[in-house]
Amino acid sequence: MPTVTGSFAASFSASFSTAAAFVAGATGYTGRAVVAALRTRGVETVAHIRPGSVNGAEWRARFEALGATVDESPWEPAAIVAALTTHRPTHLFALLGTTRARAKREGITAPYETVDYGLTKLLLDAASACGHGPRFIYLSALGAREGTSNPYLSVRGRLERELQASRLPFLIARPAFISGRDREESRPTERAVSLLVDAALRGLATAGLSGPQRRFASLTGRQLAEGLTALALAARDARTIADAAAIRGAIPAEQA
Questions:
Q1: SS3 state of residue 235
Q2: pLDDT in tens, 60-87
């Protein structure tokens, strides 16, 4: 299975004019940037919003202003299969995730198992059942490994295994930190750690060791979205894994 680990020159084999995307997790930090990146490229885009979302009207207006279609299908197997059958996306972006703090506010127990894995698995099953085999773009994480004591990384490792066992074309993205000043949701600890790691990596790069910075430096939501979108659209039928260096290397120069 091809693993993309370095710089990437996009030779787009799939025409943007024939691509259509369905973005699950569209209201998240990365998701909203992916919707914008897709629309900038002229890709027909469906942004999925959780039904009953408190800010649903605001998100609908925001996405429709970009020219995207909004879908509010409930998170039920038959409903998601129906949505994918109706919209027939060539590319399905799985950008789902939550935090312990948010899960506590919403009364969700075992958040990583319930949301990060459970909803993504529902989406994967729907993609396999919808009949037209969209490319499944899965936002995983650096260090994802099934069975690790870290539940965040463990559920992603499990989903990666199940995705690779499917017959779908896919792109598995494994960035390190996803962080930026433009992140609306407050994550002070994560932000502080990412800043410290980035500073250390810059120090290594100054000393002539640039490899770690390419592989482990944080990405903003916009950077991740631009690289992820470019990689996803470049090879519609491929089954690949991309690290942070590949994602950063895929960002078009005009979007960097």
A1: coil
A2: 999 999 999 999 999 999 999 999 999 9
pTM for the whole thing? 0.83
Residue with tokens 């919003």: 49
Find the radius of gyration of the CA atoms of the chain: 17
* CB-neighbour burial class of residue 196 (10 A; exposed 0-12, middle 13-18, buried 19+): exposed
Cα distance between residue 145 and residue 125, in whole Å: 21
At a CB cut-off of 8 Å and minimum separation 6, what does 255 contact? 37, 40, 226
Task: Compute the distance between CA of residue 194 and CA of residue 203 in angstroms, rounded to an integer.
Answer: 14
Q: In sequence order, which residues have a C-beta less than 8 Å from that of residue 208 and are 6 or more positions away?
A: none
CB 163 within 8 A of CB 173: no
CB 70 within 8 A of CB 43: no
